[in-house]
Amino acid sequence: MTNRGSISQRAMSVKPSATLAITNKAKALRAEGKPVIGFGAGEPDFPTPEAIVAAAMVATGDPASYGYTPAAGLPALREAVAAKTLRDSGFEVDPSQVVITNGGKHAVYQTCQVLLDPGDEVLLPSPYWVTYPSAIELAGGRTVVVPTDETTNFTVSPDDLEAAYTDRTKMLIFVSPSNPTGSVYTEDQVRAIGEWAAEKGIWVMTDEIYEHLVYGDARFTSMPVVVPEIRDRCVVVNGVAKTYAMTGWRVGWMIGPPEVAAGATRIQSHLTSNVNNIAQRAALAAVEGSLDAVDMMRGAFDRRRATMYELLESIDGVSCVEPQGAFYAFPNMQGLLNRDIGGDVATTTIELAEIFLDKANVAIVPGEAFGAPGYARLSFALSDDDLIEGLTRIINLVNVR
Description:
The termini are far apart. The protein folds into 2 domains: 146 residues, Alpha-Beta Complex (Aspartate Aminotransferase, domain 1), CATH 3.90.1150.10; 238 residues, Aspartate Aminotransferase, domain 2 (3-Layer(aba) Sandwich), CATH 3.40.640.10. Strands 2-8-7-6-5-3-4 form a 7-stranded mixed beta sheet, sandwiched between helices. It has a 3-stranded antiparallel beta sheet with strand order 9-14-13. A two-stranded parallel sheet has the order 1-12. The chain is α/β, with parallel strands linked by helices. Helix 4 runs parallel beside helix 11 and helix 12 packs parallel to helix 14.
């Protein structure tokens, strides 16, 4: 018998975002006056570039911004995203293949809604961004985790994928540069995985939101560019959040074959209608504009990356693969478990994160949130001074035995 007083099983089964939970807890403690330093935020600490803000200001005074606009996005922005995609990754698409979404997270969710039916399996390399499993499950799909670790730089091979493949496999989620590990696949690796997916005839959703944030010898590679035969079964998701310090503006996009774009537009017409017009105009200025501000931010992230890596490696019981992209480090903290840390003992990285917050006023995201117990994600998208101070607190807490 239906329990009419209860909420849906769907709503009850969804786990809240662990990264947002950590960030919100750190903010709440700071509001109480505690000197908390948070390594949880997945957003740049820079202001949105002035030219983008100025475009939004102009848009607020334009009556064209005040009414409904096409659900798939402003035509000018869809054209600009297509042009920007060709410029930045070499992937040539028609503007009609672009659907503007309420941030990259919406693009991920909507891609799963368009492509998945109940029971379809999705190959998801772990560690993974916290939202992917929920987006899969909300579409009725089943997440099939493909584990990786630091011995392969947190990357999967076609052999790994083959071992997880079944006749129910519908899609692969591919991410490079990676959140949470900071790993970047080489062009040869991207090609091999794309060719495997093409041979199997499955879909690939490739998340390219960190395309501009690569360091050292690492290079971003777009799968449909190096494996053209996958483009008719590939959806690219992206957005302005990370590249242009626009996380709160909530503008992303998905690019796919015509039937995918049409399906996404139909869903979006009922789900949200158009994305905020003023934010779309700001995004237009971003993708059409100079990358000078992006280069400045990348330089700062690169400097902080080196500092974080050096300090993490100095902690007794911690090892870390040097991040190559995005703005995260993903250290192995298993050497800190089951030992005295400030008078307490943690058996999991969830408990370890609680000790760091309680004893050192430092917030990290435990690896359990990303399907990787024993690890943790630390963002280096915070000021140099806070980064050094926060890691010094952890060092002082951990290294005193």
